[in-house]
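Worked example

This section walks through a single chain of length 704. The input is the sequence exactly as stored; nothing has been trimmed or padded.
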Amino acid sequence: MNFQSLTAQIAASKTSRLFLLLAVGTTMTGTKRHTLPRDKATYLNQTIIDFLRPGLNIQIASGTIAADGTITAVYTVADPLGLPLDIAGVYTPGPLTVSYVIGVIPNNQEQYTSYITSQATGAAGTFTRAAADSGGTLTRLDSGKYQYVFNAKAPTGFDATATHTIGIYASRNMAAFGIPNNFSSNVFSFVPDGANVTHVRDVVRTSSCNGCHDQFSAHGGRRRQVELCIICHQPQSTEASNGNSVDFKVFIHKVHMGSRLPSVVAGGKYAIGNTDWSSVVFPADPRRCETCHDQKSGAVQATNYATKPTAAACGSCHDDVNFATGKNHAGGPQVSDALCSTCHVPQGEIEFDASIRGAHTVPTDSAMLSGVQVVLNKVDNGMAGQKPTVTFTLTNAAGDPIPPSVLGSLSFTMAGPTSDYGYISFGADVTTPGYVTESALAAAKCGPDGTCTYAFTHAVPATSTGTYAIGVESRRVETLLPGTMKQMSVTTGAVNKVAYFTVDGSAVAPRRTVVGTANCQSCHVRFTGIHGGLRNQPEYCVMCHNPSNTDGARRPGAVVAADKDLPPQGINFNLLVHGIHTGEKLAVLGRTYTVVGFGGSHNDFSDVRYPAMSPTGSTGDTRNCAICHTAGSETKLPIGKNPVSDPQGPISPVQAITSACSGCHADTPVAAHALANTNSLGESCTVCHKTGAKFSVGSVHAQY
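Given that input, the structure is written out below as tokens.
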């Protein structure tokens, strides 16, 4: 919808809108913009925003169950600033569709049971599932305040001392105004006899899910809270297409295990309805239970995963175990969950034992590791034409000095200038483009306190100006539980540190920060497997993954014969990361992203399923750039940065802005558009895509 037609609708609706404002005594004068950069409405005229007041907030005021089983909920619907909304959409823009569910947690049970069920028939048969109410009575009590009396009733003899929870979820239809629908959901727990709620189901909080999923949403976007999901996703509910349980603890574990499910590894698949989750790779390693069972989330039962093991929860990941027969279970057949915690205590005496935390220890997370730390103290002799000397401290994780001889690798990388890496040569003998890496394992000189120095054999190029960078990578291999049946070798890497230094006397200017490690770790938790554990910080990664670099040096030794015949793949950091996270969406764009790595390994990222959810609940939504980018860096177009080598792309070399954008927007029409707007003077992207322009980065990536 264009501005003129929307303005006409505003004029036509003025009378009804004014009526509501007078009725509730609310004035619009002086209100602040209440939309966010992710909201499409943010990019509308402020007058239109003030009229539409986009957004939706449901608050449940009360829930009751009468002696005859009549269930009643009282709730309010409002915009983000608290102005009441009209469900019918007569007095305020956008009619609402509202749904209602109710569940009870019996006093002798842990999970909900729904008072409302339906039958679903599919290929696997007919199954029961929890359902929403229909046919109840809705009454408007006041502006934005409503009462809903359920059509369904609590069964005769219902337990008035048990915790009951009413869930309400809704959408506000904004299609007539050219912006996406708004969604909201909420829950309200109560005990019908008036007692305080003490018996709850509060294991995982929505905030934990949002760490990866951005905005947790499902079923078209209307369900947005774990607290709501578990009312229906409990043992009552089975999916009819294949007979799989959709009990939350079962199907969420299975979805996140995905390709690592023993049944999938054995050649099977795991699907719910028409969605196949068999290719999912959990980015944090599924053994890190506390990624979801976050001990800092505030969930009352956050420790349940460790203190209350059950066959259903554990068997959902370990789905090759048959607890009834004892197959693949060291403890033999188990007729109930009563004895699970006898062997599987929360924490044992050592890691990697049968305790819950022990059995799920990721080797690189082991507290038994000594580890390695390298701190860069200073860079001397760093002027142009000189060979820098790095002073650094080498210790274990506890801060105790260690000699280089205990390490498997210790190397320093030099690159520059920080204005943009990639096109400086460090000598005719250096084959790596834009940087040089030198091993210091044998040449470093260390004192007993762990203070060491390393003198580069390569010089800063004589014509260099500005700021250069030196980064460090190191790893060590340690043996855990030696002499036991659990003995294992574990490789850990030091955190990559980077030091910046001037090569011409000008002020030191570190390389721009585009993404933050903490942002990456909200999903990945730790980078432990990249390049053998050597590289783990974007600040360091960009030194090698620079605009001129490709996998060309690895292609001749590719283990997949077809890779040898293809052009090199560009591996500049933004091209690499955008390509990886776009993943399975690349096929729709007619592209793939495959990198030949060390040893000629074939690394095809075309099946990656990016976990961020769209407003309507589907995964793979890459529009919220701020998940990875820091401080709005996604809106700061890389104007004038180095061109990027992309031999497999439609344009190579490709200009910096085009490369950054086309990693996700990878289809040919986008490339043609960019090429048509690039000439000898450079890219004209900023005309349309800079902040404040009609098609700014923020506006075209807005989701809500």
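What to look for: The radius of gyration is 29 Å.
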